[in-house]
Every structure is written in C-alpha cells, then in structure tokens.
Amino acid sequence: MPTDDDLTAIAKVLGEQASGIGFFVVTAESCTGGWVAKTLTDIPGCSAWFDRGFVTYTNESKQEMLGVQAATLETYGAVSEQAAAEMALGALNNSRGTIAVATSGIAGPGGAVPGKPVGTVCFAWAERSGDIKSCRKQFAGDRDQVRRQAVAFALNGTLEWMLLHDTNE
Q: Fewer CB in 10 Å around end: N or C, the chain?
C-alpha cells in the first residue's frame, strides 16, 4: 500500500519532469476527491507546473464543469474509460493545462453494480496534441486503500505519460 511519503516522492519526480519539459498538469477527479491535486500541490513550487484540479463527484458536475456527454454517462456510466477520457479532455478544454489526468471509480463500501465491483477505478490521460489513453484497474481494500492506490496509479501514469512524450530527449 503506498504511503503518504511514497505519494510525495512520486509527485516530486512528476513535478521535476513536468517543469523540465514544460508541461502544465491539470486533474479531473471523482472517486479520489481531489487527492491527486492535493498530492501535487503539496510540492513547493508546484505553481510552475500545476494549473488546477476539478473535483466532479456527481454526473451533473461532470457534465457542467467538464463537458462529459449525457449519452456517455447513460451508455457506459460514470465509472468507465469513456467517461474518464471525456473528463480528461474537458479538464484540458477548461484550463491552461497541457496534460490532464482523470479518475472515476467505486471506492466503496457501497456503489458496486454488475460488472463494476467496489475497487473499480477508470483512469484517463490526455494531452493538448490530442493523444489520449485510458484504462480500468481493480484495487483491493477498504475505501481509503482503494483511493490511495488510485492516487498512486494516477500519479505514476501521469509521470509515465510525460516520460514517453518528452520531446526534449
């Protein structure tokens, strides 16, 4: 289970990478409730590479703040790679960010639906260039453990994205 120190360490490296390649990070979070943004903004000097975070817990807020389509939510649900992808794109469209990370999931203890048990979290990363990636993960544990693992996965995925898209190398 990632500790607070682990999350901070990832965020520091992520910030150094973002700063080094000129990326501006933006987050769009549901199940993590702003924890990804909080971890990033715990790093001194983050205003050089972090723009803003959106916490969109309800379907209405996902639609109003990020432009997630009602049809996407109706067809696939809020906990879907499709919804996470639209959240990431919406975060970019409503910010100065150059890279976005989005999280949407079922942290528990309730909320499970057929095919989406507690611990299901969908992620997406998007860049202004139009590149986008999404995935679905299944985490074990209680609500805090699921959310903590999701934060670590989101941070690591963002760092990995930046390393793969670093045009300075």
A: C
Please state which CATH number belongs to domain 4-164. 3.90.950.20
- Measured from the Cβ of residue 131, the count of other Cβ atoms closer than 10 Å reads 12
pLDDT for 142 equals 97
Instruction: Quote the CA–CA distance of 96 and 122 in Å, as a whole number.
Output: 24
Beta strands in 18-144 (DSSP E): 25-29, 50-55, 99-105, 120-127, 132-138
State the helix-helix crossing angle for 59-66 and 81-93, rounded to 10 degrees.
Answer: 40
Q: At what angle do helices 143-164 and 4-21 cross, to 10 degrees?
A: 20
For residue 168, pLDDT beyond 80 = no
For residue range 85-135, list pLDDT tens digits in order.
999 999 999 999 999 999 999 999 999 989 999 999 999 999 998 899 999
- pTM over 0.85? The answer is yes
Integer Cα distance of 11 and 17 in angstroms: 10
Most distant CA pair in the chain: distance in Å?
A: 46
The encoded tokens of residue 111 equal 């909320």
Interstrand relation of 25-29 and 50-55 (parallel, antiparallel or unpaired) = parallel
- Amino acid 70 reads A
User: Are 66 and 91 in contact, with CB atoms under 8 Å apart?
Assistant: yes
Distance of alpha carbon 128 from alpha carbon 62, whole angstroms: 19
